[in-house]
Backbone:
């Protein structure tokens, strides 16, 4: 896509204020974000695509149900347990997604891949009691996972080498990885935020569930924590997702769910290029990733 108009080169993509977006995001939703109202009891998950957003949201859903923060009465009757998103199209063609979200019952669990600069003010600079969980994953595994996902979805027709270069240069969906993670990382000391890393969750799932529960002020028994850990293992969620007939791409969300899968795809040259970009962008920021 280098040197060419993104919409001419990849017709399912479009550029908005210098960032590449998939067509399903829709410009109307992005235009509406500065005025979108965030409620005090909203729980928001922010993360670059393929960072573990859905996995994190499943944990949150289960924690909130176990703590009695969501009940049958507060579940969305149109899609109980569904993960709502700012930046994705919905089946109802009569409403853009921000209008759809405005009518959803509280508490809402909303996921977004948006950079901080594109997010609603109530997420980018939160006040009140809104809870925001930022999920991050190392850029190499993120790129490999995104390649396989977008290829299965039919959005990507490039080979791995071309895709890896586009990802590294921020010429793929949602733009530059580092611009995204560092924008949210600036808020690491804000009490409205909890930051989680995919690799840490893989190493200590129980600890991740307990962190989420504490952050959401959800008092859980040990047995409830153990049940959530078992329910939200990659193995169990993959079975659910693979059989899903849900809207969109849920059935291809889960693939391997491991850390270090980048080694199966990266050439030495690609590895060196990704390492150089990593050091250039993260040196001195305090943000580090594990690659194993």
Residues:
């Amino acid at each position: 896509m280098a040197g060419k108009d993104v919409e001419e080169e990849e017709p399912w993509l479009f550029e908005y204020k210098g960032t590449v977006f998939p067509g399903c995001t829709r410009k109307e939703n992005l235009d509406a974000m500065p005025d979108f109202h965030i409620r005090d009891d909203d729980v928001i998950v922010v993360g670059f695509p393929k960072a573990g957003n859905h996995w994190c949201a499943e944990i949150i859903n289960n924690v909130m149900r176990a703590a009695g923060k969501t009940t049958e009465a507060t579940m969305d009757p149109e899609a109980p347990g569904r993960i709502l998103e700012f930046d994705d199209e919905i089946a109802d063609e009569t409403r853009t997604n921000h209008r759809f979200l405005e009518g959803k019952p509280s508490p809402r669990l909303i996921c977004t891949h948006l950079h901080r600069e594109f997010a609603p003010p109530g997420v980018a600079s939160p006040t009140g009691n809104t809870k925001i969980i930022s999920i991050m994953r190392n850029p190499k595994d993120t790129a490999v996972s995104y390649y396989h996902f977008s290829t299965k979805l039919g959005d990507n027709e490039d080979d791995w080498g071309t895709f890896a270069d586009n990802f590294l240069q921020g010429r793929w969906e949602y733009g530059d990885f580092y611009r995204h993670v560092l924008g949210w990382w600036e808020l690491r000391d804000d009490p409205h935020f909890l930051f989680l890393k995919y690799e840490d969750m893989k190493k200590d799932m129980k600890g991740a569930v307990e962190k989420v529960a504490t952050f959401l002020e959800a008092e859980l028994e040990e047995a409830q924590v153990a049940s959530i850990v078992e329910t939200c293992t990659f193995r169990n969620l993959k079975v659910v997702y693979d059989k899903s007939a849900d809207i969109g791409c849920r059935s291809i969300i889960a693939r391997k769910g491991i850390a270090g899968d980048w080694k199966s795809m990266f050439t030495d040259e690609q590895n060196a290029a990704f390492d150089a970009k990593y050091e250039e962008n993260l040196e001195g920021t305090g943000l580090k990733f594990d690659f194993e």
In short: Strands lie at 13-16, 19-22, 43-46, 84-85, 109-112, 131-136, 193-197. Residues 73-81, 247-252 have pLDDT under 50 and may be disordered. The radius of gyration is 18 Å. The CA atoms of residues 58 and 232 lie 7 Å apart.
